[in-house]
Design a protein that fits this description.
By secondary structure, the protein is of the alpha/beta class. 30% of the residues lie in helices and 20% in strands. Helix 4 runs parallel beside helix 5. It is globular.
Amino acid sequence: MTRSSAPPPPIRRVEKAADAVVDPKAWWATIPAVAAILEHGLNLPAGVTFLVGENGSGKSTLIEALAGVHGLNAEGGSRGAMHSTRVTESPLAGALRVIRTPGRRANAYFLRAETMHGLYTYLENLPGKNPDTDLHERSHGEGFLTLLERKFHGYGFYLMDEPEAPLSFESTLRLIAHLDTLRSDGAQVVVATHSPLLTALPGATILELGGHGIRRTTWEDLELTSRWRLFLRSPAAYLRHLL
C-alpha cells in the first residue's frame, strides 16, 4: 500500500462532548494541553503521532482519555480487557467524544509501561487457547515488544504511554521499525514519550505539550532534542550545574 492510497485514519478528531459538564478548576482541566482540547478540540492525523512534554504536561492524561473514550481499558489492553489495579486516571474521557471515520472496522489496543505486569497477569489467566502465558517469563522489555507485535497489527487505532521505559537502545530501534510497519499498513498510532530516539521516526507528527497548550513541531525544533544534544555534547559541563 502506498502512502497516497492509504485509508483514512480511524479517528479523525477528539473534542469536548456537547453535553459534558467540566469544572474548570479541576486539576486535570487546568492542564494547558487539556484545556486547549476542551476549548478547541484536536484533529488527529493519520500515521504516527508523538505527544512530547515535561512531566505534568498532560501526556498520560491525554493518552488515557483517548483510550477511555475509544472504549479501551485505561490500564492497557483491548476493548474487552477487564483488569484494574487502582483507578488513577482523570475523568477527561467522560468529557470527550471522538469523531470516527465511518464504514470500516478498526483494531484497537493500548499499552502503557507502568501497568504492563497487571496486563500480563490478566492475559495469562484468560481461558481457552492462549498465546500470552509466556509474558511474565520474559524480561520487561522483551515482554513489552512481544505483546506489541502480537496485538498491534493491521488497520487500527493504537495507543502507547512511554513505551521506551523498558527498552534498550536496540529494542527502541525495533519499536521504531514496528511503528513504521504499522503506518504502512494504514494504522493510526498515538505515542506519549520522552524519547528523542523514538520521535526521530521520519514522517511522524510531533505535538509538544506545555504551558502554551499543544503545538505542532519538528524533531529538530523539539526542546527535548535540544537538551539531549547539549547533554551528550558535554555531560560534565551539563552536570556541573547540578552536582
